[in-house]
């Protein structure tokens, strides 16, 4: 499963709950990158200023990371991707990678939440990249680079839209019904 949706839509929360329920790993490129930044690895040092500015980290830094993660033993019976792909080149890379390693995806979830709700949620979360100015940039980057993926996946008949502006448990129940159906 792949989660799309703006920052603050609840992708991380829902992906993590579904990962526990289904027993497949939750793969969050944001979490992987934040861990790399904390540890000040080479990847982390290269990624840090893009993340603090609310820009996407360059594709070459994330593509290898995804290839490595999806070929780990625990990812062979499924995975829930959160935060990847985030632009058309990443989605094209992903199609190619999955063909290469013979893994399909079943669903692309578009978690829909209105802008004003997103901004309120992110401001209350208070992560380092959750200042008003950086949030606005992340939303703009989302609109320009990530939102086109909705049409990309609609064209592949994989897209399911879910209203993310409802209580967490309600959204979680909808997602569980979908994977059980
Ligand atoms: P959110 O969806 O709330 O913005 P994430 O944790 O998914 O948070 O991402 C945080 C930051 O990590 C992004 O703003 C971006 O800088 C970087 N990032 C995460 N995933 C990717 C990706 N697939 N490609 C490029 N940059 C990424």
Q: What can you tell me about this protein's structure?
A:
With 181 residues, the chain is an alpha/beta fold. It has one domain: P-loop containing nucleotide triphosphate hydrolases (Rossmann fold), CATH 3.40.50. Helices cover 58% and strands 10% of the residues. It contains 9 helices and 5 strands; from the N terminus they run βαβαααβαβαααβα. A 5-stranded parallel sheet has the order 2-3-1-4-5. The longest helix is centred in the C-terminal third of the chain and has 15 residues. The radius of gyration is 16 Å and the shape is globular. The two termini are 14 Å apart. The model has no long low-confidence stretch (mean pLDDT 96). Adenosine-5'-diphosphate binds next to helix 2 and helix 3.
A few lines on this structure:
The protein is α/β, with parallel strands linked by helices and 181 residues long.
Fill in the keyword field for this structure.
single chain; alpha/beta; Rossmann fold; 5-stranded parallel beta sheet; 5 strands; 58% helix; 10% strand; binds adenosine-5'-diphosphate
Strand arrangement, major sheet: 2-3-1-4-5
Question: Percent of residues in beta strands?
Answer: 5-15%
DSSP strand tally? 5
Taking the alpha carbons of the first and last residues, their distance comes to: 14 Å
Ligand species: adenosine-5'-diphosphate
What letter string, H or E per element, gives the SSE order?
EHEHHHEHEHHHEH
Helix and strand content put the structural class at alpha/beta
Helix content: 55-70%
